[in-house]
Inverse folding.
């Protein structure tokens, strides 16, 4: 079973950048999909970036062009580079790992319980 731990959250001003990391330990699927979702208070979970073991990526429209998902396979770390941050990006960010589905499907599926493993999340606060 995979365990995930996020880090890198914090408080930044609008226009700033942050890089989130998600370190994975334990067993790993040979083919997989991984990604990031977020949840703001009172709102539903929102898948924002996904990557599958074919190397394909998918992004939510709200973050496309500003956020980049990547991974270091040797270190089992998933990253989310977030640039041009906006106050509406304020949320708790979670990483997720599950069996293979194409990245564009993982974007939605990762927010559903039972998809795979979730981390505990890291808070991102963007002030105007």
């Amino acid at each position: 079973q995979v365990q995930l731990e996020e880090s890198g959250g914090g408080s930044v001003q609008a226009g700033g950048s942050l890089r989130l990391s998600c370190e994975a330990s334990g067993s790993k699927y040979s083919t997989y999909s991984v990604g990031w979702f977020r949840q703001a208070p009172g709102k539903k979970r929102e898948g924002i970036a996904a990557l599958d073991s074919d190397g394909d990526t998918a992004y939510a429209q709200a973050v496309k062009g500003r956020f980049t998902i990547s991974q270091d396979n040797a270190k089992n770390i998933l990253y989310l580079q977030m640039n041009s941050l906006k106050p509406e990006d304020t949320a708790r960010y979670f990483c997720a790992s599950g069996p293979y589905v194409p990245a564009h499907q993982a974007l939605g599926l990762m927010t559903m319980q039972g998809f795979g493993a979730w981390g505990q999340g890291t808070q991102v606060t963007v002030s105007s």
Remarks:
- Residues 14 and 86 are 5 Å apart (CA to CA).
- The longest helix spans residues 103-109.
